[in-house]
């Protein structure tokens, strides 16, 4: 599978797909997308890198501990869920805020989006953690 | 500071200062014991501060709300009874911790020791002041857990581990049974609050007449009996003697084992005055009293003798609390309470003596000990006071409470009429006789007779003051309470009895009260007791022979059978429920699914294929479906893994195509991505195993699998066809709510995503947690494969 063509295409695709996955994540509240899809998208491009360049070679320049990603994700999700309690609201109460930014226009800030970021990290972390462990297995 | 705040402080002080022990021990090093003594002293003072209020005849109630929406609160209730046990726990705590400073070697892990002692003390105090049953249960189990840790303090000794486990299993399980009883009590009364029930006569009447009365009483009593080592549950206490001796003196004679007694006393106003109460409580008490006293004979370890005597003495108290009639519900309450106080003093004293002897003579075996009166004269005097008080000799406090025991036994026998008039006093005398015999044995075996030389150090002497003074203090109390009984009676026994009986009580107890029947019984006790003592060794030898001959006549035998075989039995059961082959799990799963879907459809009486089906299908759908069928068949029939997997993923992509056609971009996107990733992971795994289906599938298996697959397919088909037709009219689709409210309530236009992260965010949190667990599961599966053990 490691032909020059796939290698080149993977290199070109990598930044595009990552950007697309982030845009999916951020767009999720109002348009198709969301943390789960964005996460799977991110995971699949990294998986492609692993397949094309090999786990060992990739590890020499890019070797994150994926378990930390999902740990961070679940922490973030929990924090957003519990954050409403000290503020006097019910568990999981979401906050919506609209901000007017110059040049960009109206920006909508939703605390649920932060929760979605948590989901995003959990999905990336678990999928790639499993992927790497299965692939690494002798 | 008002009284209820004082009580709360008394509960939390030991806990808070226990948590600080590791830090303080860095400064104080091996002197950490004095810190613990200081904390315990502060607790005693806090409880003593409210004692005058209680003597005055008032009760204290206080509460802190901590989850008002669920009606949960932390509330405390203090009356004479709770003060009594609270004072015992903290007061004996001070004595024991002081003694420990001399007893525990500085090489031991002292911070851990004192930390758990303080935690135990806090749990005990928390338990007795709890005003609701749930809170009581929590503190109750905390005492079991701290006791477990303290019994197993020397955690490299197998006997300690055995003893600790046994204590935990029996007392914690007893506690759970008790919780069930509390829940039933709540079902009957509608409240968890104890004072609410106590102060409401109509509620108590309702409990007595309720059909659940007996089962509630039984469940709560099992908890109490397990904690106080009564009835068949006694077996944990002798093994708990593996704990350091101060712990045994503190937990397993003076305080924790009194928790069961406390519960019985606390429940007395609620349940007493009925036949069931007398039969259950007094019956268990009387049997335990005689049996444990008898079994004490064959013990050779002085701590084991004390353990059996504790069981027997607690049974005295239990029996007296059980004495009840309809007209006079609390015949033995005052006597029981007084004996409770007395037992705490003389038994803790004797345990401390046992600790001193073991510490100085390096053995606890009564066969090796003997004639130590000249080597340790002060210890000898203290031991005599303790043991003679236990035997019931005047002028010690044990004499007084035993007289009261006989008196109340006579009264109870009188109330029940023949043949109980004689039977109950006779059983009481039997208990007294056995107690007399082993009490004398303790003095005789350790201190009297010829000085033993074999197996004993040459120079044995009295211990340092820090160990002697606590024991001497307790001995002094024994004498004081005997000579001037009005001190304990007026200050603690009367308020306690009033707390249990819920009325004013006045008691008059004197050392000399004329030639009464109880005095006659005492004289009889001493005469028979002395007679039995001359046969002491013969009886012990007979017990040994009997035990050797019939090992199965013992509660311990069944406990060991149950615990030792637990693993094998569990494996037998799990080999049926968890056979380990995926085939069984999948079959069970599929069968359940078919049942869950099929039964409602049949019961609802809908047509399996609805009449009004819409057969108007677009050409695109037909085409996609056709390809899906082809891909499905290919996945099943292709002879090698790789093409089969490709066919399977083709099916997946076709599904996503269908989603696009049905205008569900979110679903389509997700489907494509998941399909891609799962295909890659599938391939990664599959390349490692042989690439051809080598195994031949027998026809029977094939037919069976086809039937299962067909059944699943048709069930799902019927389900979906019916679901789209709306076979259950009253159910409205939930989606309308979400579509209408997603923008207004959650500020999002993508309804699917808003549902995931906002409306059903809680579900999503659960799902991502499961996802993380799945990752760990895969990790373990892969990495645990190599080492099969």
Biggest sheet architecture of chain B = 2 strands, antiparallel
Count every helix of chain B, treating DSSP H or I runs of 4 or more residues as helices.
Answer: 32
Residue windows where pLDDT falls under 50 for at least 5 positions of chain B: none
Helix content of chain A: 55-70%
Global Rg of chain A: 18 Å
The number of distinct structural domains of chain A comes to 1
Structure write-up:
Chain A is built from five helices and two strands, in the order H-H-H-H-E-E-H. With 138 residues, chain A is mainly α. The mean pLDDT of chain A is 83. Chain A has one domain. With 789 residues, chain B is mainly alpha-helical. Chain B has 32 helices and two strands. In chain B, strands 1-2 form a two-stranded antiparallel ribbon. Chain B is elongated and about 110 Å long. Chain B starts with a helix and ends in a 6-residue tail after the last helix. The chains are: A mainly alpha (138), B mainly alpha (789). Chains A and B meet through helix 2, helix 4 and helix 5 of A and helix 28, helix 31 and helix 32 of B.
Write a concise keyword list for the protein shown above.
heterodimer, A: 138 residues, mainly alpha, two-stranded antiparallel ribbon, 2 strands, 68% helix, 9% strand, B: 789 residues, Four Helix Bundle (Hemerythrin (Met), subunit A), two-stranded antiparallel sheet, elongated
Itemize the secondary structure elements and their pairings.
The complex is a heterodimer of chains A (138) and B (789).
Chain A lengths: L3 H24 L7 H19 L1 H7 L4 H18 L12 E6 L3 E6 H26 L2
Antiparallel strand pairs in A: 1-2
Helix pairs in contact in A: 1-2, 2-3, 2-5, 4-5
Chain B lengths: L2 H26 L3 H24 L4 E8 L4 E7 L1 H24 L6 H20 L3 H19 L6 H32 L4 H5 L2 H9 L3 H15 L8 H4 L5 H10 L3 H14 L3 H21 L6 H21 L10 H29 L15 H15 L5 H20 L3 H27 L18 H19 L2 H16 L15 H18 L1 H14 L5 H10 L1 H12 L4 H23 L14 H19 L3 H21 L3 H22 L12 H27 L9 H12 L4 H9 L1 H23 L6
Antiparallel strand pairs in B: 1-2
Helix pairs in contact in B: 1-2, 1-4, 2-3, 2-4, 3-4, 3-11, 3-15, 3-19, 3-20, 4-5, 5-6, 6-9, 9-12, 9-13, 11-15, 12-14, 13-14, 13-18, 14-15, 14-18, 15-16, 15-17, 15-19, 15-20, 16-18, 16-19, 17-18, 17-19, 17-21, 18-21, 25-29, 26-27, 27-28, 30-31, 31-32
């Amino acid at each position: 599978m490691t032909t020059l063509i796939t290698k080149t295409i993977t290199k070109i695709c990598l930044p595009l797909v990552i950007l697309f996955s982030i845009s999916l994540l951020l767009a999720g509240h109002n348009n198709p997308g969301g943390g789960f899809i964005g996460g799977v998208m991110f995971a699949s491009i990294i998986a492609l890198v692993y397949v094309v360049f090999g786990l060992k070679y990739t590890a020499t320049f890019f070797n994150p501990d994926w378990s930390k990603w999902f740990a961070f994700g679940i922490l973030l999700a929990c924090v957003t869920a519990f954050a409403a309690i000290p503020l006097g609201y019910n568990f999981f109460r979401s906050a919506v805020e609209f901000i007017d930014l110059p040049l960009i226009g109206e920006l909508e800030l939703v605390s649920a989006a932060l929760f979605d970021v948590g989901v995003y990290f959990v999905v990336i972390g678990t999928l790639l953690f499993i992927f790497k462990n299965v692939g690494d297995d002798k | 500071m008002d009284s209820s705040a004082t009580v709360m402080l008394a509960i939390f002080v030991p806990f808070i200062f226990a948590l600080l022990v590791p830090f303080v021990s860095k400064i104080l090093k091996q002197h950490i014991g004095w810190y613990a003594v200081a904390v315990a002293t502060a607790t005693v003072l806090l409880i003593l501060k409210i004692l005058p209020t209680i003597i005055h005849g008032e009760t204290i109630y206080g509460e802190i709300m901590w989850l008002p929406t669920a009606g949960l609160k932390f509330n405390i209730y203090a009356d004479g009874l709770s003060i009594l046990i609270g004072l015992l726990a903290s007061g004996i705590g001070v004595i024991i911790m002081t003694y420990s400073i001399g007893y525990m070697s500085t090489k031991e892990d002292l911070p851990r020791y004192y930390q758990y002692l303080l935690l135990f003390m806090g749990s005990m105090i928390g338990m007795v002041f709890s005003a609701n049953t749930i809170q009581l249960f929590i503190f109750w189990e905390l005492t079991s857990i701290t006791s477990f840790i303290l019994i197993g303090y020397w955690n490299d000794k197998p006997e300690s581990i055995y003893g600790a486990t046994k204590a935990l299993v029996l007392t914690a399980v007893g506690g759970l049974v008790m919780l069930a009883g509390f829940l039933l009590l709540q079902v009957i009364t509608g409240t968890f609050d104890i004072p609410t029930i106590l102060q409401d006569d109509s509620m108590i009447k309702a409990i007595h007449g309720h059909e659940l009365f007996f089962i509630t009483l039984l469940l709560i009593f099992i908890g109490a009996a397990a904690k106080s080592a009564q009835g068949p549950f006694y077996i944990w206490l002798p093994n708990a003697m593996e704990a350091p001796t101060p712990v045994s003196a503190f937990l397993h004679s003076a305080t924790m084992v009194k928790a069961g007694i406390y519960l019985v006393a606390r429940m007395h106003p609620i349940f007493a005055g009925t036949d069931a109460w007398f039969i259950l409580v007094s019956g268990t008490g009387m049997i335990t009293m005689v049996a444990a006293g008898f079994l004490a004979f064959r013990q050779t370890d002085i701590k084991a003798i004390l353990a059996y005597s504790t069981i027997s003495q607690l049974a005295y108290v239990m029996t007296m609390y059980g004495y009840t009639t309809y007209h006079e519900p609390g015949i033995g309450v005052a006597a029981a309470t007084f004996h409770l106080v007395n037992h705490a003093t003389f038994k803790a004293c004797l345990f401390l003596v046992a600790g001193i002897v073991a510490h100085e003579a390096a053995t606890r075996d009564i066969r090796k000990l003997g004639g130590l009166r000249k080597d340790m004269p002060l210890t000898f005097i203290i031991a005599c006071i303790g043991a003679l008080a236990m035997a019931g000799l005047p002028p010690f406090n044990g004499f007084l409470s035993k007289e009261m025991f006989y008196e109340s036994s006579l009264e109870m026998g009188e109330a029940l009429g023949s043949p109980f008039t004689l039977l109950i006093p006779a059983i009481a005398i039997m208990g007294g006789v056995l107690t007399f015999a082993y009490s004398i044995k303790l003095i005789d075996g350790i201190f009297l007779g010829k000085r033993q030389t074999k197996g004993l150090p040459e120079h044995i002497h009295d211990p340092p003051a820090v160990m002697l003074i606590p024991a001497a203090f307790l001995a002094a109390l024994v004498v004081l309470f005997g000579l001037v009984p009005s001190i304990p009676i007026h200050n603690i026994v009367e308020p306690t009895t009033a707390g249990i009986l819920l009325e004013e009580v006045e008691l008059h107890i004197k050392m000399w009260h004329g030639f009464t029947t109880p005095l006659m019984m005492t004289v009889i006790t001493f005469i028979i007791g002395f007679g039995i003592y001359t046969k002491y060794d013969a009886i012990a030898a007979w017990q040994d022979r009997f035990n050797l001959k019939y090992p199965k006549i013992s509660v311990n035998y069944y406990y060991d059978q149950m615990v030792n075989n637990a693993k094998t039995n569990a494996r037998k059961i799990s080999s049926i429920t968890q056979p380990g082959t995926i085939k069984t799990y999948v079959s069970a799963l599929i069968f359940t699914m078919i049942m869950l879907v099929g039964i409602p459809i049949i019961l609802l009486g809908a047509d399996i294929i609805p009449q009004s089906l819409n057969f108007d299908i677009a050409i695109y759908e037909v085409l996609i479906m056709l390809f899906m069928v082809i891909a499905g068949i290919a996945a099943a029939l292709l002879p090698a893994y790789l093409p089969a997997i490709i066919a399977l993923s083709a099916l997946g992509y076709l599904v996503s195509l269908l989603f696009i056609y049905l205008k569900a971009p979110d679903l389509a996107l997700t489907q494509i991505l998941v399909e891609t990733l799962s295909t890659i992971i599938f391939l990664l795994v599959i390349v490692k195993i042989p690439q051809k289906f080598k195994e031949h599938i027998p026809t029977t298996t094939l037919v069976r699998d086809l039937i299962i697959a067909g059944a699943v397919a048709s069930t799902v088909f019927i389900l979906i066809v019916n679901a789209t037709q709306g076979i259950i009219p009253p159910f409205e689709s939930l989606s309308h709510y979400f579509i209408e409210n997603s923008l207004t309530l959650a500020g999002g236009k993508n309804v699917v995503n808003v549902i995931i992260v906002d409306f059903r965010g809680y579900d999503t949190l659960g799902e991502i947690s499961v996802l993380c667990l799945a990752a760990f599961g895969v990790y373990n599966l892969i990495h645990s494969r190599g080492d099969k053990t």
